[in-house]
Amino acid sequence: MVALFVLSLTALPSLQRQKPQQPKGAPIYIPDEVKKVMLAGMASREPRLDIPFTITHNLYLPAREGLHSIFFLKIKNADLGFHPVGQEQPVKKEGSGAQETQSQTYSGPQLQASFNMFLMFNLLEGDSYKTVREVYVPCNLVEDASTINLEGEDYYTFGYPLLAGRYLLSVALTSLDLKKIGVQYYEFTLPDPGSYLQTMDTTPIFFIKSIDRMEAPEMRTTLHREYFTYSVVKIVPNIERVFKVGENLDIFFFIFGAQPTAEQKYNIEINYEVKKDDELAIRWVPQTYDNPLVSQPLPLKQTVIIKQGEEQRQETRDLPEGKYTLGIQIQDKVSGKTLTKTVDFEVK
Question: What's the CATH code, domain 247-347?
Answer without folding.
Answer: 2.60.40
